[in-house]
Amino acid sequence: MDKSKRLFLKSKRPFRRRLPPIQSGDRIDYRNMSLISRFISKQGKILSRRVNRLTLKQQRLITIAIKQARILSSLSFLNNEK
Q1: Which domain of life is it from (predicted)?
Q2: What DSSP element (H or E) covers 82?
Q3: I need a labelling partner for 55 at 20 to 30 A (CA). Which of 22, 23, 65, 77 fits?
Q4: Which residues make beta-bridge pairs with 40?
């Protein structure tokens, strides 16, 4: 089969749409600790946008909210739990 024809063939796998991690009613804010904690790794690092499946705007707002929470000491900079 020619390469140009292979590009238009559909894959056999069914496409499953993933649900967005942030719903329309969720407010991205430094006080919303249940939302913020989902986007931090066990080591306390901010997870990447690819891992989070967020849009660029949402990732920026999450990053700002996490940094504000860290500065106000509602969230630690490091996770010392072992």
Answers
A1: Eukaryota
A2: none
A3: 77
A4: 46
Residue 79 falls within a domain, yes or no? Answer: no
Place of tokens 């499946």: 53
Is residue 33 within 8 Å of 74, Cβ to Cβ? yes
pTM assigned to the model: 0.71
pLDDT tens digits, one per residue of 26-78? 889 999 998 999 999 988 899 999 998 898 999 999 999 999 999 998 888 87
Classify residue 66 as exposed, middle or buried by CB count within 10 Å of its CB (0-12, 13-18, 19+).
Answer: buried
In a domain, 21, yes or no: no
Structure tokens belonging to residue 27:
């407010």
- Tell me the residue type at 1: M
Which CATH number belongs to the domain containing residue 43 in this structure? 4.10.640.10
